[in-house]
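Let us walk through a complete example step by step. Step one is to write down the protein sequence. Step two is to encode the small molecule, guanosine-5'-triphosphate, as a SMILES string so that its atoms and bonds are unambiguous. Step three, shown after the inputs, is the structure prediction itself.
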Amino acid sequence: MNTNLIVAIVALVLVIAVAIVVWGVVHFKRNGGTSSDGIAAHAREDDGPEASDDGGAAGRGVPVTDAPAQSGTTSVAPVSAGSVASGEPVPERPESSASRVTRLKAKLSKSSNPFGKALFNILAKDNLSESDWEDVEDTLLLADVGSEASEELVEGLRRDSRVNGDADPAAVREALRSKLVDLVNVEPDRALNADKPGATRPSVIIMVGVNGTGKTTTAGKLARLFVSEGKSVMLAAADTFRAAAADQLETWGSKVNVPVVRAEKEGADPASVAFEASRRAKEENVDVLIVDTAGRLQNKANLMDELGKIRRVTEKNLPVDEVLLVLDATTGQNGMVQAKVFAEAIGLTGVVLSKLDGSAKGGIVVSVQRELGVPVKLVGLGEGPDDLAPFDPEGFVEGVLA
Ligand SMILES: Nc1nc2c(ncn2[C@@H]2O[C@H](COP(=O)(O)OP(=O)(O)OP(=O)(O)O)[C@@H](O)[C@H]2O)c(=O)[nH]1
Ligand SMILES: [Mg+2]
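Step three: the predicted structure of the complex.
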């Protein structure tokens, strides 16, 4: 081969190599200096978010700006939100808290929640027999009030002169009403911590619970509730098992123009999403950050540990004010077992009782509060976007007695 040809080939190879290097640098800069492997890589505890002060985000290519996502190059997607830019849908205006309480009270009384009515029908009889009292207790047990509370209520009613003898129905109803309110209203402080005077800002709420209880729906509804109060909200899709879970949350967010922080890839470390979201919430000084997590069975120890990790990593940026357990009211007493394990794994500050519209078992309100010592703060009464209301014990009892 002649020397000129060899020189020409070497020169060509050098030019190509230089071009590749230049392209690589430009591409790297355009991505805000992020690496391309992403957090999808793996939620290993040893190199996970807890291993470094930034929750592992930096080393995993979590972008530090809100630059547009480069598909496949970032791991936690930039905040996405419904936009009010021209051509985009105008954000919905969620129903106010006061209006939904009135509407949902009516809904509760129309729903299949007959235990109050059944109790009243027995108690309004003249001269109650032993078997009537047994029926009262059975009715309470069937409604999931729990055995201890049922016994207490029956004893209280038996002692009450308004119930014994030939009392008029109005007096019996009043006796039953006040005893049920006493039973339900054991935890007077039901306000969400984010709504309390002097709440930390941003307030952080983590939603937890077993599969399908209504966590994502409740996170979406809750975002709307805060928006209706004029608060700024951010959502975090820390359910990274399925991309559909983040899409579901994004649909909720986009309707009310609430940004959603999500992982770019399925299987990313949920703690990294929580870390990134809490960092952004702090940076943007939003009022409330709501973190949705994947459903998990309480007997899967590794998944329960993951919840603890999500909490600890979030706390590197912001204190966690609230952990809400979403409990499906139709699950009945089985929900109690779940609730206890979640309380141990992550600590709970409140319960959301979802699907109360489809349940004859509203008595779980009584057992969950007595056994866990945490208040029911919210109730879900349907699949509609604003079918979530603060739990109101008096209204609840009126509903079951209506
Ligand atoms: N009737 C009724 N349905 C509800 C309520 N809350 C949630 N749902 C429905 O319950 C189903 C499950 O809700 P999701 O929010 O996806 O439940 P999840 O807990 O996020 O589920 P995973 O993430 O899979 O664990 C959906 O069909 C919701 O519409 C409620 O208060 N009443
Ligand atoms: Mg979900």
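Step four is interpretation. Residues 26-74 have pLDDT under 50 and may be disordered.
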